[in-house]
Automatic annotation (TrEMBL):
Residues 141-185 form the LysM domain. Residues 1-21 form the signal peptide. This is Membrane-bound lytic murein transglycosylase D. It comes from Lacunisphaera limnophila. It comes from the Bacteria. Keywords: Coiled coil, Signal. InterPro entries: LysM, LysM_dom_sf. Residues 36-77 form a coiled coil. Pfam families: LysM (PF01476).
């Protein structure tokens, strides 16, 4: 009976850890989504900067046409500026894409770990009892489940057999008793 109680406790602890891991994975997923949103916003800002620079470039070209610089000199300056801007924009794009790829890879690993934990949890579920014996004492008492009670604790308190309580009350999953639930305890005090 103690071994069963210890297994139930271990199973509950495992389920709590599994639920905590799933919550941690959800929180990490939300943080990664926020990071991707911020990166998208930054790319938008950089695009607006490039557009502003293009407008300024056009303004400079207009001004240069009115000054004494030659057209050839202006064309070279504009070409140099465009090469510099394109190189800078390309570097920034590569940097942002590398960050996003790293975050997606991390998210993928976390998702796989969460899925494996869920799969293990499903595999470790106890078999649900579907048949019950009528071989238990027919005399006993009624007991109202209190906070913190388990079937093992109730059996010990009332000097009864756990299997008799399960069979008398047709409890298919002993981990699912609820506070306030009334149980019949065969051979109770």
């Amino acid at each position: 009976m103690r071994a069963f109680s210890l297994r139930c406790g271990a199973l509950l602890a495992f389920l709590a850890v599994s639920a905590s891991a799933q919550m941690d994975a959800r929180a990490e997923l939300a943080a990664l989504r926020q990071d991707v949103m911020l990166l998208t916003q930054r790319v938008g800002e950089l695009t607006m900067t490039v557009e502003q620079l293009n407008r300024e470039n056009e303004a400079l070209q207009d001004k240069a046409n009115r000054s004494y610089a030659t057209v050839d000199q202006l064309n070279k300056a504009v070409a140099d500026m465009n090469r510099t801007l394109q190189a800078e924009l390309g570097d920034q794009k590569r940097e942002v894409l590398a960050q996003v790829a790293g975050q997606l890879e991390k998210l993928g690993r976390q998702t796989n770990a969460a899925l494996e934990a869920v799969a293990k949890n499903q595999a470790a579920r106890p078999v649900v009892q579907t048949t019950f014996s009528d071989n238990f004492p027919k005399e006993g008492i009624n007991y109202t489940v209190q906070a913190g009670d388990t079937l093992a604790v109730i059996a010990r308190k009332n000097n009864a057999k756990l299997s008799d309580i399960v069979n008398a009350n047709k409890i298919s999953d002993p981990t699912r008793i609820q506070v306030g639930q009334t149980l019949f305890i065969p051979q109770g005090k």
